[in-house]
Amino acid sequence: MTALTDTLTLTTGADIPVLGLGTWFIDDDQAARAVKDAVAAGYRNIDTAQAYGNERGVGQGVRESGVPRGELFVSTKLAAEIKDYDGAVAAIDGSLETMGLDYVDLMLIHAPQPWDDFRGGTYDEGNLAAWQALEEAFHAGKVKAIGVSNFLERDLDNIIDNAEVTPHVNQILVHA
Predict the structure, then answer these.
(1) Could you say which of 43, 52, 103, 123 is catalytic?
(2) Quick check: is 43 catalytic?
């Protein structure tokens, strides 16, 4: 086993490679090449987000990588500013269309607050509305797993206590 082939199993049964290519700060016009090069080097986990502005290029790289789609684990994140059901539904479908993929393996709510109010106010109802849209996308097979990112314990408890589907992933920020 190597870091590129080690996986963890989600409660959905899907295996997520423990090491992945993060695409934050990769321009959209360079993302396809970065993804293809990473896949050629052995990466199978590719992470992007609506906020990164490079979903189009990431999707292109996935489609052109030469590796069957089912062998790649692709994650994206619902923009932190989206705190309503209709906006979340549109954004989920928008990511799939922008990426040119039939599904993503994991979609997260990027943060419990919009970035301009990060760690400021509480957005419990908005997060539940966005979560409902993610649950529906999960049940429809548009996303294979759903989760949260940058959530504190109280934010995570709000989802767990009020949702049908418990988050499959709680992505936390760590700086080495």
Answers:
(1) 52
(2) no
